[in-house]
Amino acid sequence: MLLRHPPFALLIGILTVLAGLPLLGLPNTALNFLFFVLVIALAGQGWNLAGGYGGQFSFGHAAFFGVGAYTTAILQVRYGVNAWLGFGAGIALGSFVGFVIGSLSFRAGLRGSYFALVTLAFAEVLRILANAAPITGGAAGILIKLDVAPANFQFASRAVFFWIALALVGAVLILNRMIEQRRFGAYLVAIRENEAAARALGVNVLAVKLQAISLSAAITAAAGALYAQYFLYLDAAIAFGPWISVEALLAAIIGGAGTVLGPLLGAGLLHGLGEITKLAAGRVPGIDLVVYGIVLILVVAFAPRGVIGLFTKGDKGGEPTSHG
Amino acid sequence: MAEPMLQVKNLTKRFGGLTAVNDASFSVEAGSITGLIGPNGAGKTTAFTMISGFTVPSAGEVLYEGRSILGQPPETLAKLGLARTFQIVQPFAGLSVRENIAVGAYLRHPARDAAMAEADRVAALVGLAGEADKSASALTVAGRKRLELARALATGPRLLLLDEVLAGLNPSEIRDIIPVLQKVRAAGVTILMIEHVMQAVMSLCERVVVIAEGKLIAEGAPEQVVREPRVIEAYLGQGAAERLARGESHG
């Protein structure tokens, strides 16, 4: 119960503990890893809003991740826009692309696997376009000039990036928790459970889905923009490749789709286990992917409601039933 | 008499070669409980889906409080005060009973606390107060039927379309729910109900509309309607009315 619907105090507590990690004097490789987990968690949080709560299973969140990443990079490199403004523009444009893809597919009445396939197709089209268009640097990719200064959204310390990523993840955790307690959240879950019944109760299904996909896309675009600022390099396969679509949905599903903490937990678990295996097994290529696959099979077989579902047996979800 | 709450005029629905509802006209008076009965496959549920905006009629007109509602989607109709239940209950399985009802209550109570309070009020009205914290999927059939009713009620309807809310209930469960429907009507909600349980129709409805093979074949007070030869024949086959009448006179 506590994990499924964590009180704000617990969320703040988790964030505070995580924020202390860089102070332990971790090496840069560890901070790299933690930052990467947070980016995946953020992308997963985006997916979770539309997919986990709203039941709209997207297989193409790479579209939003890539738009966020490329917008940030292109505005800086080609138009000399300030990095922070570029970051904001990336989120806004990502959200808009979410709205457009949502409008096209939801208005056409696409649901379930059809929606998944269409989103995959959109992401793939964007990947191919990004691979060919001059403005994205084509197959060579795009490089953001290294110019370490806070004004450029570039920091010498890995810890600062970690804290920024954590702040974003934390903000979405709180936002998610607030949505759960509001009409929007109740409507999302109602749509996931039964669209016809929701409509009969006065839920404007199209409007709620469009709000959800726009917000979902904005969050995943933020992950993309953050990725671009950190690695300062993008190509089409990184930004729009299916890998990030899969990472986003796996993080949420493994952790617990439709739960506040699911994506963070899922991202940490998957990559944590992968990393530990790599360390333990030494130089066996691809061993982390094997672990990845095994975790996936175990979760699907034994925890269909994700890892959080394991701790909340019998509680079928939704909101805590007391009024507070 | 004031204008009818609902007027259905020449309603027709064709699915390819099949005419499910054929030129049916009837009306529902404000404040009444009107029964919509007929044999299986008569087109009752199809008529409901058209009135509630889930399907568009092939022809005809539906007036709600004197205004045409043709082509309005269900969510708009719900805002106008027209709610429906589903014959096959459709609970939000992942939510508790209270949350299920709150989804309906949010329509008129956007704030969470108000919606939850309204959900509790409606749960008490339909006799689900003790089960508000249960998961909807843990309810019995009778409980799910009540939940279906409660969710629709929580939207604050003026006209409630009930599609077989008593089907699948045992006689004592039916006896329990009849007073609930009477309370709902007493609260000012007009009810149009599809029902096969004649015990309930006779005790609840002041008017009954009978359709068979998509056509309206009778309407009037329930005691009258069930004596009409055409109604008896629709249920029991051609010549049945005559045979029954002969049987009666022979003693």
Explain the overall architecture:
The complex is a heterodimer of chains A (324) and B (251). Chain A is mainly α and 324 residues long. Chain A has a domain at 25-244. Chain A has helices at 8-20, 28-53, 62-79, 83-107, 112-132, 158-180, 183-193, 195-200, 205-231, 236-240, 242-255, 262-281, 287-302, 306-311, and strands at 142-143, 233-234. In chain A, helix 2 runs parallel beside helix 6 (158-180) and helix 3 packs antiparallel against helix 4. Chain B has one domain (6-250): P-loop containing nucleotide triphosphate hydrolases (Rossmann fold), CATH 3.40.50. Helices cover 39% and strands 24% of the residues of chain B. In chain B, helix 6 (171-186) links the parallel strand 7 and strand 8. Chain B is globular, with a radius of gyration of 19 Å. By secondary structure, chain B is α/β, with parallel strands linked by helices. Chain B has 10 helices and 10 strands. Chains A and B meet through helix 7 and helix 8 of A and helix 2, helix 3, helix 4 and helix 5 of B.
